[in-house]
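Example 9 (inverse folding). The structure is encoded as follows.
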């Protein structure tokens, strides 16, 4: 058996000295031919391995370079150096993999996030990305736990579909047809009957429609998977491939939906505060350093952990879209013409407006409901005013929209009417309409953007830094 190692996190936490251990990891630094800082990804805290004089020959010592991988056997002893309680006094050191110090891209110094994005295959080995991806992992785990504990069924919705759930036409096509010379119909259009699935297909933009089918049998379901959008938005908040959590609940209205979303976000914050304390503290510190570079006026009032505590301990503000517009129209920012985009009842809130509401006006997460029906998807339930729908978006400080959801239109005639108005062919969604034909019930659900959640919890500011390998317009490396 090769893997008889103890994880560094575990070793540093246990209170016993004198025991023999095997540790393996990658060298972060090697000082004075004597002190190796070894990291195995279980924690940002490196293990200090002490190499006593004469243990290794000159040639081997030279091979202990930043990035090299080692297997160390030795004894756990109390550390005299500052910064750690325990260290390992090496008895044997085996070099598993060399790393040419001249060529290794990660030098033991601070690199910019932009530089590390180009080296995304190695950036997991830095403290910042170590913390970010351990928190991302924890969040994924906590999401499953939250829903499982509440009796929601995890439904695997398809990645390849023939429908556009959001009706926004931002889909990546899936095809096996030769694109230089595809089969054509008499009128010159591509003949998708000859394609792999016998029809035109694409990558899913959302699992919601299939999720609704599940909710009409299991009552409470959730999906958690990758979704794809071919929207040409090169921003710090958009990815072409992102992960989304989508619960769907039968026998529920918009208020139930808001309550669930708020409870989920608070649960996740609480989970990470307890289970990823060390990584959060590291990122909070990092953010504080970063903020120091900014002019006073742009600095955030709260540190990362204080911000999370604040969100955890305060009820989210709940307002209607109409109220939001009124607040914006009355705002000093509007009066001083600080906004780039116009504000008018009926147009969508731009990110600058959302951030004003959250960061300047309310200073906490805000749930905006009852949006004009024209700017929202076809499946949202029409309100009695005839102008708005039972939508809800949750806006988070520093992020903007983090959740988008709604109560669904459960009334067959209303839904058919809406689809006709929006030119969505009813034949293609007859399976969806069946749930309204056979035992329809009030139901609601939402989508939480996983990467936006990770941004929120880590204090990172670019979405490319919270997904292992980002897919954005003109960028698909690794
Ligand atoms: O608001 P959206 O488009 O809603 C839906 O897809 C619904 N079908 C969800 C539902 O009701 N089941 O997307 C939901 C969330 C957004 O609030 C945002 O957090 C995230 O998904 N999101 C993105 N995240 C990263 N990159 C993108 N391009 C995103 N588009 C949406
Ligand atoms: Mg949305």
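The amino acid assigned to each position is listed next.
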């Amino acid at each position: 058996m090769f893997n008889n190692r103890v994880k560094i996190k575990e070793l540093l936490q246990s209170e016993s000295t004198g025991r023999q251990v095997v540790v393996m990891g990658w060298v972060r630094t090697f000082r004075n031919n004597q002190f190796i800082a070894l990291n195995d990804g279980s924690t940002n805290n490196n293990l200090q391995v002490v190499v006593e004089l004469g243990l290794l020959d000159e040639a081997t010592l030279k091979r202990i370079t930043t990035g090299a991988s080692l297997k160390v056997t030795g004894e756990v002893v109390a550390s005299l150096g500052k910064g750690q309680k325990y260290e390992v006094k090496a008895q044997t050191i085996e070099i598993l993999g060399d790393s040419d110090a001249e060529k290794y891209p990660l030098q033991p110094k601070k690199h910019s996030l932009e530089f590390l994005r180009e080296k995304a295959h190695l950036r997991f080995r830095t403290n910042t990305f170590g913390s970010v991806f351990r928190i991302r992992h924890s969040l994924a785990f906590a999401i499953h736990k939250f829903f499982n504990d509440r009796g929601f069924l995890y439904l695997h919705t398809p990645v390849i579909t023939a429908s556009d759930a959001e009706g926004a036409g931002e889909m990546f096509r899936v095809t096996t047809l030769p694109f230089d010379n595809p089969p054509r119909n008499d009128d010159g259009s591509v003949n998708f009957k000859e394609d792999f699935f016998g029809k035109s297909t694409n990558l899913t933009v959302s699992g919601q429609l299939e999720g609704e089918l599940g909710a009409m049998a299991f009552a409470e379901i959730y999906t958690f998977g990758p979704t794809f959008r071919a929207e040409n938005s090169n921003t710090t908040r958009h990815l072409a491939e992102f992960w989304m959590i989508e619960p769907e609940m039968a026998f529920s209205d918009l208020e139930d939906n808001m309550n669930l979303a708020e409870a989920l976000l608070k649960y996740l914050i609480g989970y990470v505060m307890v289970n990823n304390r060390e990584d959060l503290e590291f990122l909070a510190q990092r953010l504080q350093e970063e903020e120091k570079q900014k002019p006073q006026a742009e600095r955030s009032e709260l540190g990362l952990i204080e911000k999370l505590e604040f969100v955890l301990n305060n009820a989210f503000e709940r307002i209607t879209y109409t109220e939001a517009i009124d607040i914006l129209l009355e705002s000093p920012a509007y009066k001083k013409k600080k906004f780039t985009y116009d504000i008018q009842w009926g147009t969508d809130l731009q990110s600058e407006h959302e951030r004003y509401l959250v960061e300047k006006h309310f200073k906490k997460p805000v749930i905006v409901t009852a949006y004009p029906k024209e700017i929202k998807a076809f499946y949202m339930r029409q309100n009695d005013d005839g102008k708005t729908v039972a939508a809800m978006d949750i806006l988070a400080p520093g992020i903007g929209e983090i959740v988008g959801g709604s109560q669904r239109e459960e009334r067959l005639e209303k839904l058919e009417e809406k689809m006709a108005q929006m030119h969505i062919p009813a034949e293609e969604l007859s399976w969806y309409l069946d749930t309204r034909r056979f035992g329809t019930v009030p139901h609601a659900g939402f989508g939480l953007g996983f990467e936006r959640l990770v941004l929120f919890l880590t204090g990172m500011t670019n979405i490319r830094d919270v997904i292992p390998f980002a897919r954005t317009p003109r960028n698909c490396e690794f």
